[in-house]
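Question thread 4412

I'm putting together a teaching handout and wanted feedback from people who do this every day. The idea is simple: show students a protein as raw sequence, then show them the structure tokens that encode its fold, then repeat with a second protein so they can compare. Below is the first pair exactly as I plan to print it.
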Amino acid sequence: MIDDTIFLTRHYVMPTYGRFPIRLARGAGCRVWDEDGREYLDFGAGIAVCSVGHSHPRVTAALAQQAGILVHTSNLYYTHGQATLARRLVDAVGIPGRIFFCNSGAEANEGLFKLARRFGHARADGRHEVLTFEGSFHGRTLAGISATGQEKVKTGFAPLVPGFRHVPFRDLDAVRAAISPATAAILVEPVQGEGGIHAAGAEFLRGLRVLCDEHQLLLLFDEVQCGLGRTGDWCGWKSLGCPEVEPDGISWAKGIAGGFPLGAFFVRETPVPLPDGGGTPLPELLGPGSHGTTYGGNPLACAAAHAVLDIIEEEHLLENARRIGEETLAILRALDSPWITGVRGVGLMLGIELNPDIQNALPSEERRTTASLAMVERLNGLGLLSIPAGANVIRWLPPLNVTREDVRLAVSLLETALQV
């Protein structure tokens, strides 16, 4: 009987992923090893998920301890770990609010979509539409791909969920023109991840808040990838220089529990803006029976998240993300290569833009559908894992405890890969 991992996956697992031919077996810190024992420096971190690295002993211990006490209860009952985790997340935001726990970023965004719909019903004025942005990514559910501002994710899934329109990113005039009587909310990624590491900028986010206040709309932030430390702050938007901006909702997932499946969304504790001046608190629009999940925020997931937040706080990883991120940007921008056309990022959310002509310089057997995919595969071969974003951008999303030595090695491998 054939027991090869790739063979079994291709025969028994749905073909929804374009997988690289690497069979990973274990990880520790910023490194992973495949089934043959080959070592890789991991600058993808499970797509910004393994925020404190692989197999951190404190996360492992927290999971093992909690697994021996209580794994799951459903949300029909109260559990202390969930309650205290919610308090920690609200404190991290620094705005009064409440938390809903789920299992993924797509589910967290789904909760924000439902909040926007409930908001329109509470106003009784037919508002239901959510404005999102070109280049955005909001998940793989039907509503998530409908909200996403990239046509490639929508192909073959029509009819899409109505109630979403996309406007140009960082264009306040376009947003202002797009607002209609049906508009209920604006959803934005403070830093677009899948779209190629593009920051919204402080003035744009301030302008969105002003527009939302003028038109009585909800301002929602998708921080699934950029939140909870990735940019060097608990809140991605605060890293952009506008800490005073207060969103009405925030979605999270990715690094929240260091690899254990967990998502969440925050809703600001404020009255629903009604024509008569206010009413029901915004979080209470999603009251009993309006939303739910079986697994979300169970004791095991919350134990993992508490451990991750403890590590980030006690090991000063927000500071490390800021410092190492700034140093890495400076090093990458100083590289003398005709194949790099730009470098951008916030904290440890870094994008390296490639000259698409690099495809023509590669050996024919290395050419792929995009320059980013070809270069990621070349880096894989050298022992560096990274993530493609669009046709021409490589994402570096290392753990928040990455070291200068790790960065020097990654840059050296990138320089080698660019020698074509």
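The second pair follows. I'd like the answer to focus on this one:
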Amino acid sequence: MKALCTICARAGSKGVANKNLRLINNKPLIVYSIEQAIASKLFDQIVVSSDSKDIREVALANGATFCVDRPAELATDTAPKLPAIKHCVENAEKKFGQFEVIVDLDATAPLREPSDIIGALELLKSTQADNVITGTPAHRSPYFNLVEADANGIVSLSKPPATVVARRQDSPQCFDMNASIYVWRRQALFTNENLFTGNTRLFVMPRERSLDIDSQADFEMVEWMMTKGLKQ
């Protein structure tokens, strides 16, 4: 299957300024995703989409095969990601021809391993799924200890179970999306406006490889984990 890796990395960030170029263990954050894509040996092309000339230059210098200039309207704080991925694919296909599978790697998830990328793509291939997302076992359960408040401030379980659940471990298994890897069949990507298509599968990653950098504290935690070799 002809496979494209996309990495969408905009210049702006509310949590940490210019975080995609910020050094973590002496390496720009975005470079981790590029190196993982290369190490997986899955991709015909690795394409970075960014509104930042500096990000595009760093990407090309570190193994990306092509860069796409991301329009300003697709790089705001409120812009959804799917249109940015589609824009990136469309521009990559003008140069390289059509792809069968698109794998988007989030630039803020440096703890993933190439084996995670391989596993997510294998799940897509081994099923008839439209797409595959990644997640990790949830720390809170809507059936046990995740609550919502109504208009009067009265709280109740977000998803009351049919019978009383005495322990979180006995509740239906739930997962936190970790925003690390998104795998799409091309047709499904361009015929859906939502991440969940009715035929979406989940590839489970361990919690220690699922941190998504969105704050200074996240940067420090990830760097500490890398230094201590704590990702498994």
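Top answer:
Good format. For the second protein you could add a caption like this: The CA atoms of residues 101 and 134 lie 16 Å apart. DSSP finds six helices and nine strands in the chain.
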